[in-house]
Amino acid sequence: MTSHSGRCACGAVTVHAGDISSELSACWCETCRRWQGLCGWGLHAPADQFHFDGPVGGWQSSLIAE
Question: What is the mean pLDDT of the chain?
Answer without folding.
Answer: 84
